[in-house]
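Hello,

I think I submitted the NAP job twice by accident. Can you confirm which output corresponds to this input? Input:
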Amino acid sequence: MVSRVIPVEPFDLVVFGATGDLARRKILPGLYRRWLAGQIPEGSRLIGAARSAMTPGAFRAFAAQAIDEFVADDKRDAAAEAAFLARLEYVAVDAEGQTGWRELAALMRDGVVRAFYFSVAPALFGSLAERLKQHAIADDASRVVVEKPFGSDLETARALNATLARHFQEAQIYRIDHYLGKETVQNLMAVRFANILFEPLWNAQYVDHVQITVAETVGVAGRASYYDKSGAMRDMVQNHMMQLLCLIAMEPPYHFDPDAVRDEKLKVIRALDPVRAENIVRGQYLPGAGQPGYLEDVENPESQSESFVALQAHISNWRWKGTPFYLRTGKRLRARVSEIAVTFKEPPHSIFDDAQGWRENVLVIRLQPDEGMNLKVMIKEPGPGGMRLVQVPLDMSFAEALGAEGADMPDAYERLIMDVIRGNQTLFMRGDEVEAAWAWTDPVIDLWDGQKPHDYEPGTSGPEEALMLMHRDGRRWREIR
Ligand code: NAP
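Support: Only one job matched these inputs. Its output is below.
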């Protein structure tokens, strides 16, 4: 299969926060890979901006080091790298002061797409937006990209939306949730809406329950101060897991069009029932295997923030009433795995007297590692002696099925940045969607005010209590492995 690269218009992309961790690990290496793939046209430029005084040459050396560190060896090409680095400029700009803005304005060109990536703390979004307008650097055709976290509750998200709306139209604002840039996440829509196979069964009549798991083996060290204020519910559930739930549960949009898709996602969020206290379990990892526990990692022995959360959600609409959605995410768990498992109901009647070995059909969509799908189906166990049933997987790794192209999928950030340049908002969150997600999340967080999470051993599936969340319904979590 031949990889298709769709070129974009020439652009000036200004990255505020260009000396930061996200720029170093994701944005700069990602843009280099797109350059190598031939997607970035000649005449495009990347302009780094941050407070640090730095020459363009020093910024190129910083970018070269980032490429060295975060781009795989088989993607290194000295000539391409030199040509890419030659596209980089740097301006020292203070988001909150007047330094650098005139110089930045002088660098901008007419006749190319102008995009501004706010890879800085959200507290700076307002002053950046204001100065971009004040110095006529951004106009009504420009695009701004904003990073997570988009608020820490409904009130702060509303305030951020209002700040951005003072300077930009909604159609100019690209709120990143990098999960939406993952190949398999988009594949959820292709699997559901480009095949007739699943959709007739995709409802409460045939689906017993859905499990969404995002498990990590790492702890919170390195992000401890941010994480301890946030916890898993704000860091993962309100955004990434909510997006996965929406893509699984939404109605078919009338077209694969940004607002049509986002309208349908919004309807799912609004149809979510409030979560009851008995349907949530929170946890904190203990020390173990030579690693500190959560409380040591965040250096706060009194912390009540959760590094694990499992909950049961219900969607009150015609399609899903009665089908629970179990969500679980955590740090320091047994394995790094993200997957969605749709478990179907029993056939209405078994024609086999001896239905030994019968198990439910399960469609597992793996986001990582080894992106792909796995459908568990029943067949006859080979051999004489009657009809015995056995469950076998129909397993498809996208990398294997798609050959070289599948093994070479762009990183989520690369794809999303190119979508910004293309002006396609489908994979970005709309302001009302983010607010609706907070409106559901806030009361959940209020439920545990003053309560300590359960402990769990590192390298496990989380607290025992989370197992009970499903056992009491006669269901089981899939193993994390
Ligand atoms: P970081 O490493 O702390 O970098 C912050 C950047 O902002 C630096 O380049 C800093 O440069 C610049 N900056 C700070 N104050 C400034 C000012 N007044 N004017 C201009 N520039 C200023 O943060 P980060 O990890 O890259 O995160 C950036 C954003 O991405 C945050 O919103 C974060 O929540 C989000 N995010 C990050 C990650 C990640 O993996 N890192 C993941 C998801 C989301 P100077 O000090 O030189 O000014």
